[in-house]
Amino acid sequence: MHLELFRAQWGEDVFTVTSYSASIVAGILLTVTLTLFIAHRRRIPMRPLLISLAALIVSVPIGARLLHWLTNPDAYLNVSDVYELRFRNFALYGGILLGGIMGYVMCRLTLLDPWRLADSVTPGICLGIATIRLGCYLNGCCFGLPSSSWGAVTYPNDSPVFLYQISQNPSVLFDGPQSVYPTQLYELCGALIAAGLALWLMRKEAIDGIPFLVAALFFTMCRAVVYFFRARPATWAAPDKLYPLLYAIIILLGIAAVILRLRMKEKDFKFVQSTY
User: Fold this and answer.
1) Per the similarity annotation, which family is this (predicted)?
2) Which of 65, 105, 179, 245 is the most buried (most CB within 10 A)?
3) Do β-strands 4-10 and 13-18 pair in parallel, antiparallel, or remain unpaired?
């Protein structure tokens, strides 16, 4: 575990750079850079693209914080804590959902094809998620349930993992930290594979929207499986079925969207044939 990457001193002030905050900044930069590169290759107009990306960058952390607040209200001493600018207390799918809504709205305002934009931004978002999950692993958050299986990891005595285990079972204090599933790395791998799928489908010139939908379906399925191996936060106050239900809805809607996109392409192909 590496909570701090380094410290920098400016006069009498000392600035600490944590692995988690660094991973978020690196994830954002990676997402934007890769998206701009892919969009340039696909000849997407830069000005409306930059406007849409700006909306995404603003809306994603807001959605992630709001969902975390709704599901973990005890993590906030007062309402003003919801608006703090520190890199903590985020729920990934809250950011993805609000970002998706804002992205669609901005596409309509800037006359961009929402499916084409979604495809272009998906690999960058997936790589950004992978980078942030690496930060979670180094930070010791978003950890899994106790496990004695191969591949389980053991965090030190001063880690959030051990403090959580003590809060759940005080007798653990005398036994030492229990090994846990590295769920952060599971999601990291899932995000990387999802990015690869999106890039491969775009290279194969798949129908607009299919790369995004396939990547989203794959990663959501990974999250649905990992959910049952991940420890619930001590501040968790929502029903345990909330996330499984959310994942199920997203998967069903994603499958329906894939079928509709393929059928629309088939109808367009038949229409073109009939005009000859």
Assistant:
1) Belongs to the Lgt family.
2) 65
3) antiparallel
